[in-house]
Specification:
The structure holds two protein chains of two kinds.
Chain A lengths: L7 H4 L17 H13 L5 H27 L13 H13 L1 H12 L9 H22 L25 H34 L3 H11 L6 H34 L11 H27 L8 H31 L3 H12 L3 H13 L7 H4 L2 H28 L14 H24 L5 H6 L18
Helix pairs in contact in A: 3-16, 4-6, 4-10, 4-15, 5-6, 5-9, 5-10, 6-7, 6-10, 6-16, 7-8, 7-9, 9-10, 10-11, 10-15, 11-12, 12-13, 13-15
Chain B lengths: L1 H4 L2 E8 L2 H13 L5 E4 L7 H5 L6 H27 L12 H27 L13 H5 L5 E6 L7 H10 L4 E6 L8 H14 L1 H11 L51 H5 L1 E2 L2 E2 L9 H19 L8 H8 L14 H5 L2 H10 E2 L2 E2 L7 H18 L16
The chains are: A mainly alpha, B alpha+beta.
Amino acid sequence: MTTVTPTTADVLSEDPRRRPPLVTGEATLGRVTDDVCAIVERPRPPRAWYAAFALSVSLTGLFFGMLGYLIATGVGVWGNNSPVGWGWPIVNFVFWVGIGHAGTLISAILFLTRQGWRTSINRFAEAMTIFAVACAGIFPAVHVGRVWLAYWLLPVPNQMQMWPNFKSPLLWDVFAVGTYATVSLLFWYMGLIPDLATLRDRAKGTLRRVAYGFFALGWTGSARQWHRYEKAYLLLAGLATPLVLSVHSVVSFDFAVSQVPGWHTTIFPPYFVAGAVFSGFAMVVTLMVPARRFFGLGDLVTLRHLETMNKVILAMSLMVGFAYGTELFIAWYGGNPYERFAFLNRALGPFAWAYWVMVVCNVLVPQLFWSRRIRTSPAAMVAVCVLVNVGMWFERFVITVTSLSRDFLPSSWQHFRPTAVDVLTFLGSFGLFFTLFLLFCRFLPMVAMAEVKAGLPGAQPRHVDGGEAAHG
Amino acid sequence: MASARGTKLGLVGAFASADELVAATRSVRAAGFRRFDAFSPYPVHGIDEAMGTRPTVLPWLVLGAGVAGLAGALALQLWTNGVDYPFVTSGKPAWGLPAYVPVAFEVVILAGAVTAFVGMLALNGLPRWANPVLGAKAVQAASSTGFAVAIEAADPAFDEARARAVLAGAGASGVEAFHAPPRAPFPRPLVYGAWIALALALVPPALIVAKRAGVSRLPRVHLVRDMDRQPKRGAQAESPFFDDGRAARLPVAGTVAVGELRADAGFETGRADGDWLSRPPLEIDRALLDRGRERYAIHCAVCHGADGRGRGPVAIRAEALREPAWVPPSDLQSEHARGLADGELYDVVRNGVRNMAGYGDQLAARDRWAVVAYLRALQRSQNATSEDLPPGVTPFSR
């Protein structure tokens, strides 16, 4: 195997005549293995990890405390009331599901389009996806009110002799989000199996060997196993690609299939999917920058990876901004007075401040990424990405709350006001997300070692061309 | 050493790079071996061809699962929403195929993805937590940085010396043997524990089967009692909150509900100044008598009979059955009944007498007086003499 040591300048090179390397530093199998495994194998994580974990666990406690209070008391503890029956729980659900779109997009669509750079970040993004979907799933489950009857959503025979209504988008949502969570988990776990086997074979203690060995399922890394593994991975990517586009489309049907002005529009599926990718990528960058720094992964996750992500974020920002413009244009051009009012009310009504936070954060702020200096500065990109997710939360808030609080009958209009329980529950959901994420960073390989190794220069036999894009 | 570890199962050669690995597998195959495998930390391209690996059937399994998922999801939706419990939403047909597309799509993906994952594991013989080949150092190293080729002793062409020579000839940096693990008896406590766990696991399904097969007269068990339990107080319940200890609040003294004012005592009770009223305290006209006849037929005639002689269908039936506790209804045509004051009759209608229950709850005051007025007319009709005839009418004689 050739030993090359590319630098940051090499990976950021824009010279179109040669493909920039995917990783920096000494690119050998041993180096990749050691860099990734060392994070998991070191006896103690960095101090920052402990601080972050303590904070996250406290917030998780707050989250489940609030959910317990809600379940024991009833949904009256929220600000939801007629006519705004959806409120924060559904805003939070759409927010978290949207964040959960980056992982499968990176692992499936970028895999099919042979984007080799995905291998350094896909594990990380997939893990984030699963944790975000876990947070997302909790909100509609508690929003049904009587949580213990949530199984009525499933087509199981019951004493009422009734079946769920399959013509309802809310039921489509159950299937879409359920399928998405399952397939994302399978995809993530399947990618983990070879790396868990690496950890098993390197393990010094019995506990580690048994624990990693159990989840590695006896993987040997034999050529016959790899053969079926690669086929299964390709099939999963092929199945997950339409899935990732369908999930947020179905979520948007929850709104678009209704008659409420501001919701009843055909632009919603692509608009929601673009917004989901936008927020998901922003979240990946937000988490990647500190993780890369604290765990010393700068050589595997290079500035070029982050820059490429930021380019995707910029593209998505333009799509989202275009969707905002189209909505306004159609509201005027469509000539429907209710629709026109809904949009005037968004931009100028009682929640105008939320609308303009959304526009500034989602459309204006990401334009900073046109500058290469900002695109490649870790601190600046985190700031932009945090603002993007603030904006994306407000987008869901604007869509849900302004439309419902000003529906057809002016006599039923009500101003929406969240309660402290609403705010603390949402805050607490971040605790759950970060707790799971920090545990992942500590105990599982953060970078897909096998996939990165397959793409290292000289990793593939010389007679096989295009080794770089070998596994991705 | 070998004897302690069990039978020798094959040989493993260690290699330095993917190039050497591919070349080694090619020469191992050329030497006539069939039961061999190559180990690498990542999928090495071109090795399938060198090893002669045939394409996996996995894509066909996934296709089958997808088709089955599509058929199953459509059948589920059409049957549940179109046949078993037809939903009519916005006047759309029960078999509304377009609305069934999203769920069918998601189920196809789910079935395909689960099959791809489970199928990959199953075809690879996973999970297999104890695999002798993992005992070889070179195979362990192959999950991190190394490359290895293993030839199994079970290969019909296996001959240790020849296999060692082929591996060394292909450039192996070292050749080692791998062995079957020493046979250790399965720990007894685990076996017993497993049996006990299995027996306990059968308890819930057995209970379910028993409950489904049997009949119970008890109400359904509510784990979460929802609105069965409410923090309100019942009508006659105690409450320490109020001075009188009662949960129910009485109206303020002197409160009269709308339409409930009963100022005329004679009209209400049939008695004025301690004496029964002799005449109904309201104007008697045809409408009142018709009302009285109707009410009499509904409430009184079943016992007292349409003619008032106490021979209503209930009385006849009770006598036919010889009911021991039966007290015959009064004959309303008797001298005694005819001699009662109107107010007294009114009181009997309202409050009952002897075995007869009061009808005050069924008949409003005006209706009670209507019944009394009708009864007077009935008595007169049943006890008429020729003197009662209007002047100028001759009585009919047989």
